[in-house]
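note to self — DONT lose this again. spent like an hour looking for the file last time. sequence + predicted structure for the chain T wanted, 302 res
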Amino acid sequence: MRIGMGTTCVYPLGVETAFRTAAELGFDGVEIMVARDEKTQSARSLRELAERYGTRVLSIHAPVLLLTHFVWGRDPKVKLERSAELAAELGADTVVVHPPFRWQSGYAEDFLDIVRDTARSTGVTVAVENMFPWKVAGRSMAGYVPHWNPLGMDCDAVTLDFSHAALSGVDGLQLAGALGERLRHVHLCDGSGALDDSRVFDEHLVPGRGSQPVAAVLRSLAASGWSGSIVAEVNTRKARDAGERRAMLQETLDFARAHTRGDGVAEEPQAAPAIAPDPAVAPARSSIARSPLRSGGRRRSR
């Protein structure tokens, strides 16, 4: 198990600041959010930074945010493929990708086929991240297709983000248990409430400062011998200075170490219950797979 830090943890500062901060604090490596900064798109630049600061790239986050809409063109399939190629070139084993936006209908129809083909052709794990429902003027809106929750998707690997779980009203421990071996990557953060609370947004709090059972999930993963990466994705933009930002990230790293070291200092590990969230929230995997439109693509014959 490796504990890394995402480059978004120092946003809007640059990628070199992320490498330097991660190395100085003692993280095991860095997750790169591919962005408009050309250094985040270049294997040569990222390799030079990793060597300079004595660390490594653990994972790549595909440029699937609204802010990165034009990075590597507008074709989301190309964005995912290039992210996986970048990861493979750097020796990173995971690419994080979001479910398609609802307006990306062609990509959404073939999404799961694209994920499988990309993983197979590059040898990189493509882990679909849990997102959250959208609300516009108090009304729910399907922002992602086939769903914001990958639990019901016919995909082999998933990224669990605790801030997104909080925002969608999902218990992270239950989701981790229901995913089982498909849980391959974790975004370490926290959240304090669901989307129904108008004061809440996608918070990405320091773990332990919100309402998600983050510690219980980490202890459960450690007890099971889980071998994925836990990557800090904490919002530090409200930090008053560099010192406060470092303190927030140090607290995040200390939290992760305390609940994954298995030395008896933290509470005894709790097994994540192997139960799925309410089917109304996340449809059963088999029911989604039967529908090409809802599953994001044709089910490939084995």
